[in-house]
């Protein structure tokens, strides 16, 4: 079963929930946590384990073969991303802009643009007891998170059967990266804050999940600050409210040091248990 | 005219609340541009009343004309994004998957595929409670924020600032390290980083700084919740010193920020809050820095 | 000497556009002929991605010896411009074309 942990707004505690939930669940069963926030992956700051694998991640880009090229300029014409350009008697490729669509390469009349691979980021896999933790990081200057997210999911799917619980720590927002990270999930947990910003961005996230047709529930973090509008909204919309993680300065302090929260804060652990129960129930109901 | 861009890399550091506070302090002197289009929240604090809105088009997606389609399947074969299927018997494009590369259109022997511009959202010009104007945008679900939309919002803001002879443009920058944030930074006179003393805060600050450094824009940093972790705060300050980033202010860990937000207000509308004083001085310092440039 | 400016207008009094890739116009001043020519870049300024290298390609084709702009080109555009002998001067973001030209002549602008 695949559960994505997402949020409309950044900084609501998505990573806190993912890392603590993954570690907590792994005390009794095997869990895979995947950090798909490849632009700013932070889960690894909270989980230390034994390095199992580290590999470079590649995307396909065209490479110019000057010897056979007739400088016809067709490549520049077919590229919709301005990632290949004819400059005088040179063809120049801009790898960061390339979407790996293969059009320039396969439509080149002289086959002078074979596809080759270019590093776009790095994947690391750690193991700590029953928890496998996989994280990918996009190289600075690379503009597209989506291919790396897709490849990371593929890496996980090839190595772990769906009978194991997989948690996806998704990127924030409602645009392409978060859709890539959640569209294959069986269920999504949306983490929000009980504030006007939190509510506004939660509504966008809810719309996104409805559009994708994926089931979802809400977790409120920093419960106690702000107002009751998020709760009222969930009630009105008939959305399950799984847990209310209390607002405590000690939680913020532990987070700031890169530590897990539940071993230290019983109130946090209680809410985590509710989330864990909810996940277990989901898995049974969906018999995945 | 000077353009100040506020960015953070990581979400939830208080970037938007601080940007809105600067907008209040600048009053009618500053045109505001909300380029955090993915999670555009500033309108909740600045109460915009829009008097102009327009559709925004960006990027293209393939469209197959079923009348012309000869069902040869070539488009589905060449598509690297699994965006074309024929489950219904007709060849169809999934807009969520289509990257807009146009390869299918180039190889279609029947000329049945055209690339159609996508309406991805709306942009607005509004009067706000500071007495000035704000340019902002709203994206449709799954629409990708792009450098183009950010550039559009900034260009409109600049046009208004020029027309009305405003000394400042204050930009709430985009998150992440991709194309939108690059576009947010383009043309800026000064960048303000907002960070927090957490392991992820410093990690993301370092990543986003690598981008700003490429553009050689002078920058400063506000550490929010500075007293949350003295050790990480000190690490951040060392990073700032080593990279020639001005340390603009430390804000205390204070929940009145959230209380103000809950009331739809910025913190500087509360004269008794300690943060009001710090941000007021910070804004004065910023103006001095910009004058000297 | 042919000097290119990134601008928001088409004459000496136009402002410099501080953006390189998404500049509205490229204005070329030919010192020998004392003549201004303009290139409308607004279509390029409006592309979703890759405005930088595309504008750089225009500069490449126009072959000026000097470019005067605001922040300077980003990575991809800079890569194109290294294929030319162009000298790039930055920091003219808040000037008019006239002021920027004078600042360049008196050595106030930084070469990037």
List the helices and strands and how they pair.
The complex is a heterotrimer of chains A (288), B (293) and C (112).
Chain A: E1 2-6, H1 14-25, E2 31-35, E3 50-62, H2 74-78, E4 84-87, E5 90-93, H3 103-106, E6 115-128, E7 131-138, H4 146-159, E8 165-169, H5 176-182, E9 187-192, H6 196-212, E10 215-223, H7 229-237, E11 241-246, H8 249-256, H9 266-285
Parallel strand pairs in A: 1-8, 1-9, 2-7, 2-8, 9-10, 10-11
Antiparallel strand pairs in A: 3-6, 4-5, 6-7
Helix pairs in contact in A: 1-9, 4-5
Chain B: E1 2-7, H1 15-26, E2 30-34, H2 43-46, E3 49-64, H3 74-78, E4 84-85, E5 92-93, H4 103-107, E6 113-127, E7 133-139, H5 147-163, E8 168-172, H6 179-185, E9 190-195, H7 199-215, E10 219-223, H8 230-242, E11 246-250, H9 256-262, H10 274-292
Parallel strand pairs in B: 1-8, 1-9, 2-7, 2-8, 9-10, 10-11
Antiparallel strand pairs in B: 3-6, 4-5, 6-7
Chain C: E1 2-7, E2 25-30, E3 35-40, H1 42-45, H2 51-62, E4 66-68, H3 75-81, E5 87-90, H4 97-105, E6 110-111
**Terminus-to-terminus distance of chain A:** 5 Å
Instruction: Name the helix and strand elements of chain B from N-terminus to C-terminus, one letter apiece.
Output: EHEHEHEEHEEHEHEHEHEHH
Distance between the termini of chain B: 12 Å
Give the strand tally of chain B.
11
Count of DSSP-assigned helices of chain A? 9
Q: Indicate the overall shape of chain A.
A: elongated
Shape of chain B: elongated
| SSE order of chain A | EHEEHEEHEEHEHEHEHEHH
User: Which fold does the CATH topology of the largest domain in chain B refer to?
Assistant: Rossmann fold
Identify the most extensive interface between protein chains.
A-B, 56 and 57 residues
Largest sheet of chain A: 9 strands, mixed
Strand content of chain B: 25-35%
- Biggest sheet statistics of chain B: 9 strands, mixed
Strands across the major sheet of chain B, in which order?
3-6-7-2-8-1-9-10-11
Tell me, what is the CATH class of the largest domain in chain A? Alpha Beta
State the fourth-level CATH superfamily of the largest domain in chain B.
Answer: P-loop containing nucleotide triphosphate hydrolases
Uncertain segments of chain B: none
Number of domains of chain A: 2
In angstroms, what is the radius of gyration of chain B? 22 Å
SS class of chain B = alpha/beta
